[in-house]
Amino acid sequence: MRQNHSEQVHIASRLFVQEHCRIHYPYMLQNHISLQTGFQHVLPENMQEAVNSFVSKATKGNVPTLIDEEAKNFPVILANALYFEMRFQNVFYNTNPALFYAADGSTKEVPTMTGKQTGHYIQTSSFVYGDMPFESSHFSFFVVVPQGEHTLCDVMANLTFSKLIKNAPEKQAMIFRIPTINIDFSANLKDVLTKSGVEKLFSEQADLSHMTSSKINVRDIVHKAKFELDENGVKAVAATEPVFVFYKGPSTPDLQIKANRPFLFGVT
Predict the structure, then answer these.
(1) Fold match between 8-86+182-228 and 88-180+243-267?
(2) pLDDT tens, 62-111?
(3) Distance (Å, rounded) from C-alpha 196 to C-alpha 193?
(4) Which of 265, 7, 227 is nearest to 141 (CA)?
(5) Which architecture characterizes domain 8-86+182-228 according to CATH?
(6) pTM of the entire predicted model
Protein backbone atom coordinates (compact mmCIF):
# COMPACT_ATOMS: atom_id res chain seq x y z
CA MET A 1 0.00 0.00 0.00
CA ARG A 2 1.26 3.46 -0.89
CA GLN A 3 0.39 6.27 1.47
CA ASN A 4 1.07 9.98 1.66
CA HIS A 5 0.21 11.11 5.18
CA SER A 6 -0.06 14.83 4.39
CA GLU A 7 -2.33 14.26 1.42
CA GLN A 8 -4.27 11.24 2.71
CA VAL A 9 -3.96 9.32 -0.53
CA HIS A 10 -3.93 5.54 -0.17
CA ILE A 11 -3.54 3.19 -3.15
CA ALA A 12 -3.53 -0.57 -2.74
CA SER A 13 -3.33 -3.48 -5.17
CA ARG A 14 -3.32 -7.22 -4.54
CA LEU A 15 -3.47 -10.34 -6.69
CA PHE A 16 -5.50 -13.18 -5.14
CA VAL A 17 -4.72 -16.59 -6.64
CA GLN A 18 -6.17 -20.02 -5.94
CA GLU A 19 -3.65 -22.78 -5.22
CA HIS A 20 -4.11 -24.63 -8.52
CA CYS A 21 -3.21 -21.56 -10.61
CA ARG A 22 0.43 -20.58 -11.04
CA ILE A 23 1.35 -16.96 -11.81
CA HIS A 24 4.59 -16.29 -13.70
CA TYR A 25 7.25 -14.68 -11.53
CA PRO A 26 8.21 -11.92 -14.06
CA TYR A 27 4.56 -10.81 -14.12
CA MET A 28 4.38 -10.64 -10.32
CA LEU A 29 7.70 -8.80 -10.13
CA GLN A 30 6.70 -6.22 -12.75
CA ASN A 31 3.39 -5.54 -11.00
CA HIS A 32 5.11 -5.22 -7.65
CA ILE A 33 7.67 -2.75 -9.03
CA SER A 34 5.22 -0.60 -11.00
CA LEU A 35 2.08 -0.84 -8.83
CA GLN A 36 3.39 -2.32 -5.56
CA THR A 37 0.93 -5.14 -6.08
CA GLY A 38 0.83 -7.73 -3.33
CA PHE A 39 0.33 -11.45 -3.92
CA GLN A 40 -1.75 -13.90 -1.89
CA HIS A 41 -2.62 -17.57 -2.32
CA VAL A 42 -6.20 -18.26 -1.23
CA LEU A 43 -8.37 -21.35 -0.86
CA PRO A 44 -11.53 -21.18 -3.02
CA GLU A 45 -13.85 -21.03 -0.03
CA ASN A 46 -11.88 -18.09 1.43
CA MET A 47 -11.66 -15.97 -1.73
CA GLN A 48 -14.70 -13.78 -1.03
CA GLU A 49 -13.66 -12.97 2.54
CA ALA A 50 -10.03 -12.33 1.59
CA VAL A 51 -10.83 -9.87 -1.22
CA ASN A 52 -13.57 -8.01 0.66
CA SER A 53 -11.43 -7.72 3.79
CA PHE A 54 -8.53 -6.28 1.77
CA VAL A 55 -10.74 -3.74 -0.02
CA SER A 56 -12.56 -2.71 3.17
CA LYS A 57 -9.29 -2.07 5.01
CA ALA A 58 -7.75 -0.18 2.08
CA THR A 59 -10.79 2.12 1.77
CA LYS A 60 -11.19 2.57 5.54
CA GLY A 61 -14.50 0.72 5.53
CA ASN A 62 -16.11 2.84 2.82
CA VAL A 63 -16.31 -0.11 0.42
CA PRO A 64 -17.04 -3.04 2.77
CA THR A 65 -17.88 -5.54 0.02
CA LEU A 66 -16.73 -5.80 -3.58
CA ILE A 67 -17.56 -9.37 -4.60
CA ASP A 68 -20.08 -12.05 -3.63
CA GLU A 69 -19.82 -15.78 -2.93
CA GLU A 70 -19.30 -16.52 -6.63
CA ALA A 71 -15.68 -15.50 -6.03
CA LYS A 72 -14.85 -19.11 -5.15
CA ASN A 73 -15.25 -19.96 -8.85
CA PHE A 74 -12.56 -17.51 -9.99
CA PRO A 75 -8.94 -18.75 -10.07
CA VAL A 76 -7.50 -15.22 -10.08
CA ILE A 77 -8.80 -11.89 -8.78
CA LEU A 78 -6.84 -8.66 -9.07
CA ALA A 79 -8.20 -6.07 -6.63
CA ASN A 80 -7.28 -2.38 -6.72
CA ALA A 81 -8.41 0.15 -4.13
CA LEU A 82 -8.08 3.91 -3.73
CA TYR A 83 -8.79 6.13 -0.72
CA PHE A 84 -8.49 9.91 -1.09
CA GLU A 85 -9.28 12.51 1.57
CA MET A 86 -8.28 16.15 1.23
CA ARG A 87 -9.16 19.55 2.68
CA PHE A 88 -9.68 22.56 0.45
CA GLN A 89 -7.11 25.32 0.67
CA ASN A 90 -10.03 27.66 1.40
CA VAL A 91 -12.94 25.85 3.05
CA PHE A 92 -16.50 26.83 2.17
CA TYR A 93 -18.17 29.08 4.72
CA ASN A 94 -21.85 29.01 3.84
CA THR A 95 -24.26 26.15 3.07
CA ASN A 96 -27.93 26.83 2.40
CA PRO A 97 -30.76 25.26 0.38
CA ALA A 98 -30.77 26.33 -3.28
CA LEU A 99 -32.61 25.23 -6.39
CA PHE A 100 -31.02 22.60 -8.63
CA TYR A 101 -32.37 22.26 -12.18
CA ALA A 102 -32.44 18.61 -13.28
CA ALA A 103 -32.04 17.46 -16.88
CA ASP A 104 -35.74 16.58 -17.11
CA GLY A 105 -36.74 20.16 -16.27
CA SER A 106 -37.72 19.50 -12.66
CA THR A 107 -36.27 21.48 -9.76
CA LYS A 108 -35.30 20.49 -6.25
CA GLU A 109 -33.82 22.30 -3.26
CA VAL A 110 -30.42 20.85 -2.35
CA PRO A 111 -27.76 21.88 0.22
CA THR A 112 -25.50 24.24 -1.69
CA MET A 113 -22.11 25.55 -0.57
CA THR A 114 -20.84 29.04 -1.31
CA GLY A 115 -17.24 30.12 -0.96
CA LYS A 116 -14.42 32.12 -2.45
CA GLN A 117 -11.72 30.08 -4.15
CA THR A 118 -8.64 30.79 -6.23
CA GLY A 119 -8.05 28.59 -9.25
CA HIS A 120 -8.24 28.29 -13.00
CA TYR A 121 -11.37 29.70 -14.65
CA ILE A 122 -12.33 29.07 -18.26
CA GLN A 123 -15.53 30.19 -19.96
CA THR A 124 -16.61 29.13 -23.45
CA SER A 125 -19.88 29.35 -25.35
CA SER A 126 -20.88 25.88 -24.14
CA PHE A 127 -19.48 25.54 -20.61
CA VAL A 128 -17.73 27.10 -17.63
CA TYR A 129 -14.76 25.33 -16.02
CA GLY A 130 -13.34 26.07 -12.60
CA ASP A 131 -10.98 24.32 -10.22
CA MET A 132 -9.89 24.82 -6.64
CA PRO A 133 -6.72 23.54 -4.95
CA PHE A 134 -6.52 21.27 -1.96
CA GLU A 135 -4.46 22.14 1.08
CA SER A 136 -0.75 21.25 0.79
CA SER A 137 -1.39 19.26 -2.37
CA HIS A 138 -0.77 19.03 -6.08
CA PHE A 139 -4.38 17.92 -6.52
CA SER A 140 -7.37 20.11 -7.40
CA PHE A 141 -11.13 19.63 -7.48
CA PHE A 142 -12.78 20.73 -10.72
CA VAL A 143 -16.26 21.28 -12.10
CA VAL A 144 -17.53 21.75 -15.64
CA VAL A 145 -20.98 23.36 -15.87
CA PRO A 146 -22.84 23.52 -19.23
CA GLN A 147 -24.05 26.93 -20.38
CA GLY A 148 -27.16 28.03 -22.24
CA GLU A 149 -28.92 25.32 -24.23
CA HIS A 150 -25.95 22.96 -24.08
CA THR A 151 -26.37 19.74 -22.10
CA LEU A 152 -23.77 17.87 -20.10
CA CYS A 153 -23.70 15.17 -22.80
CA ASP A 154 -22.96 17.83 -25.44
CA VAL A 155 -20.08 19.19 -23.41
CA MET A 156 -18.55 15.81 -22.55
CA ALA A 157 -18.64 14.69 -26.19
CA ASN A 158 -16.32 17.54 -27.19
CA LEU A 159 -14.27 18.05 -24.03
CA THR A 160 -10.52 17.38 -24.11
CA PHE A 161 -8.94 17.97 -20.72
CA SER A 162 -5.34 18.04 -21.92
CA LYS A 163 -6.11 20.96 -24.26
CA LEU A 164 -8.33 22.62 -21.68
CA ILE A 165 -5.69 22.71 -18.95
CA LYS A 166 -2.92 23.60 -21.39
CA ASN A 167 -4.77 26.76 -22.41
CA ALA A 168 -5.93 27.68 -18.91
CA PRO A 169 -5.11 31.24 -17.79
CA GLU A 170 -3.39 32.16 -14.54
CA LYS A 171 -5.25 31.37 -11.33
CA GLN A 172 -7.78 33.96 -10.26
CA ALA A 173 -10.40 34.55 -7.58
CA MET A 174 -13.94 33.30 -8.11
CA ILE A 175 -17.09 32.45 -6.21
CA PHE A 176 -18.10 28.79 -6.22
CA ARG A 177 -21.70 27.74 -5.64
CA ILE A 178 -21.91 23.97 -5.67
CA PRO A 179 -24.13 21.34 -4.04
CA THR A 180 -22.71 19.01 -1.42
CA ILE A 181 -22.12 15.58 -2.95
CA ASN A 182 -22.52 12.09 -1.52
CA ILE A 183 -22.53 9.43 -4.23
CA ASP A 184 -22.21 5.65 -4.15
CA PHE A 185 -21.63 4.04 -7.54
CA SER A 186 -21.13 0.49 -8.75
CA ALA A 187 -20.85 -0.98 -12.21
CA ASN A 188 -19.92 -4.12 -14.10
CA LEU A 189 -17.67 -2.90 -16.88
CA LYS A 190 -17.69 -5.94 -19.18
CA ASP A 191 -20.54 -4.65 -21.37
CA VAL A 192 -19.04 -1.16 -21.59
CA LEU A 193 -15.61 -2.46 -22.61
CA THR A 194 -17.06 -4.99 -25.06
CA LYS A 195 -19.02 -2.24 -26.82
CA SER A 196 -15.78 -0.25 -27.00
CA GLY A 197 -14.08 -3.06 -28.88
CA VAL A 198 -12.40 -4.92 -26.01
CA GLU A 199 -13.91 -8.32 -26.76
CA LYS A 200 -11.11 -10.89 -26.92
CA LEU A 201 -10.11 -10.36 -23.29
CA PHE A 202 -13.49 -11.71 -22.15
CA SER A 203 -13.55 -14.66 -24.56
CA GLU A 204 -11.92 -18.09 -24.66
CA GLN A 205 -9.47 -16.64 -27.19
CA ALA A 206 -7.95 -14.36 -24.54
CA ASP A 207 -4.16 -14.61 -24.41
CA LEU A 208 -2.95 -14.11 -20.84
CA SER A 209 0.13 -16.31 -21.25
CA HIS A 210 2.35 -13.51 -19.95
CA MET A 211 0.50 -13.85 -16.64
CA THR A 212 -0.04 -17.59 -16.23
CA SER A 213 0.31 -20.88 -18.10
CA SER A 214 -3.27 -21.70 -17.09
CA LYS A 215 -5.92 -21.09 -19.74
CA ILE A 216 -7.96 -18.22 -18.29
CA ASN A 217 -9.88 -15.20 -19.49
CA VAL A 218 -11.43 -12.19 -17.78
CA ARG A 219 -14.97 -12.91 -16.55
CA ASP A 220 -15.89 -9.35 -15.61
CA ILE A 221 -14.54 -6.11 -14.19
CA VAL A 222 -16.41 -4.84 -11.15
CA HIS A 223 -16.04 -1.25 -10.00
CA LYS A 224 -17.36 0.43 -6.86
CA ALA A 225 -16.81 4.05 -5.89
CA LYS A 226 -17.91 6.55 -3.26
CA PHE A 227 -17.45 10.31 -3.53
CA GLU A 228 -18.20 12.85 -0.81
CA LEU A 229 -17.89 16.63 -1.10
CA ASP A 230 -18.61 19.00 1.77
CA GLU A 231 -17.47 22.38 3.12
CA ASN A 232 -14.05 21.06 4.13
CA GLY A 233 -13.08 19.07 1.08
CA VAL A 234 -13.34 15.74 -0.71
CA LYS A 235 -13.34 12.13 0.34
CA ALA A 236 -13.26 9.68 -2.53
CA VAL A 237 -12.85 5.92 -2.51
CA ALA A 238 -12.85 3.40 -5.32
CA ALA A 239 -12.27 -0.30 -5.77
CA THR A 240 -11.92 -2.23 -8.99
CA GLU A 241 -11.79 -5.99 -9.40
CA PRO A 242 -11.06 -7.71 -12.73
CA VAL A 243 -12.17 -11.33 -12.35
CA PHE A 244 -10.03 -14.01 -13.76
CA VAL A 245 -12.13 29.10 4.72
CA PHE A 246 -13.77 31.16 5.62
CA TYR A 247 -12.60 34.29 3.76
CA LYS A 248 -13.24 38.03 4.10
CA GLY A 249 -12.11 40.42 1.43
CA PRO A 250 -12.68 43.97 0.36
CA SER A 251 -14.77 42.97 -2.65
CA THR A 252 -16.56 40.10 -4.33
CA PRO A 253 -14.98 38.64 -7.48
CA ASP A 254 -16.96 38.97 -10.69
CA LEU A 255 -16.19 35.39 -11.77
CA GLN A 256 -18.66 32.75 -10.63
CA ILE A 257 -19.09 29.01 -10.93
CA LYS A 258 -22.73 28.17 -10.30
CA ALA A 259 -23.31 24.42 -10.42
CA ASN A 260 -27.11 24.42 -10.27
CA ARG A 261 -27.68 22.00 -13.17
CA PRO A 262 -26.14 18.62 -14.15
CA PHE A 263 -22.37 19.11 -14.13
CA LEU A 264 -19.13 17.18 -14.44
CA PHE A 265 -16.78 17.02 -11.45
CA GLY A 266 -13.62 15.24 -10.39
CA VAL A 267 -10.12 15.42 -8.97
CA THR A 268 -7.09 16.17 -11.08
Answers:
(1) no
(2) 888 888 888 888 888 888 888 888 888 888 888 899 999 999 999 999 99
(3) 5
(4) 265
(5) 2-Layer Sandwich (3.30)
(6) 0.73
